[in-house]
């Protein structure tokens, strides 16, 4: 099983690239987001890889980081989501954005991907809601990132404390994570007590 490739990009055709690894060229399918960061003749690059073997083909999928690879593996675990649809989703949503969409149950964000209809998008946010928080690269460490116009992160420690309080009250981690995220979006200056109260209101709606 090929898990990683390091070499130079020698060919690029849309989201399919050829990476030369010590004289051997590997054809690799990458997401649109990854493809935009890979160029022929660049310095040596490292791709994490996932191989899918079928009766009539073998396909290598490449990822720039562990978060993207974990997101891909999570997506293809959803019934009806194949590798092509998973890569289409990762072409429009970064792993962080996918996590946010799942936590917020925003199927419209997922449905932006080519070939992904509302039913599949709904299935993605429903089936992955409890799984997403268990994977460190996709939220397991609870990296709450609420970006303002300047792109700065707001009060990650406060968010973790609020989520911990809700979990101690008996709520699921993913449910608490999403509620705190939504509460902070509308109340950016809330203190811990206010944030917990607002998150409880979010979950009661």
Description:
The protein is an alpha+beta fold and 205 residues long. The chain folds into three domains: 4-63, OB fold (Dihydrolipoamide Acetyltransferase, E2P) (Beta Barrel), CATH 2.40.50.140; 66-138, 5' to 3' exonuclease, C-terminal subdomain (DNA polymerase, domain 1, Orthogonal Bundle), CATH 1.10.150; 156-204, Orthogonal Bundle (Helicase, Ruva Protein, domain 3), CATH 1.10.8. The chain is 43% helix and 19% strand. The protein has nine helices and five strands, in the order βββαββαααααααα. It has helices spanning 32-35, 66-75, 83-92, 95-103, 107-110, 118-128, 156-168, 173-186, 192-204, and strands at residues 4-13, 16-21, 24-29, 45-54, 57-63. A five-stranded mixed beta barrel has the order 1-2-3-5-4. It is elongated, with a radius of gyration of 19 Å. The N and C termini lie far apart (47 Å). The model is unreliable at 141-153 (pLDDT under 50).
């Amino acid at each position: 099983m090929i898990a990683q490739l390091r070499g130079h990009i020698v060919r690029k055709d849309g989201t399919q690239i050829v990476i030369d690894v010590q004289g051997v060229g590997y054809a690799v399918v990458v997401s649109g987001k990854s493809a935009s960061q890979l160029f022929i003749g660049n310095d040596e690059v490292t791709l994490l890889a996932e191989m899918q073997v079928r009766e009539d083909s073998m396909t290598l999928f490449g990822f720039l980081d562990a978060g993207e690879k974990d997101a891909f593996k999570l997506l293809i675990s959803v019934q009806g989501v194949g590798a092509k649809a998973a890569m289409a989703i990762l072409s429009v949503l970064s792993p962080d954005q996918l996590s946010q969409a799942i936590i917020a149950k925003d199927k419209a964000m997922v449905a932006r991907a080519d070939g992904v209809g509302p039913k599949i998008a709904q299935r993605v946010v429903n089936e992955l809601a409890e799984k997403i928080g268990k994977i460190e690269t996709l939220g397991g460490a609870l990296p709450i990132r609420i970006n303002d116009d300047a792109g700065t992160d707001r009060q990650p420690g406060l968010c973790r404390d609020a989520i911990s309080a809700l979990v101690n009250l008996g709520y699921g981690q993913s449910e608490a994570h999403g509620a705190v995220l939504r509460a902070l979006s509308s109340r950016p200056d809330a203190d811990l007590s206010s944030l917990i109260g607002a998150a409880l209101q979010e979950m009661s709606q």
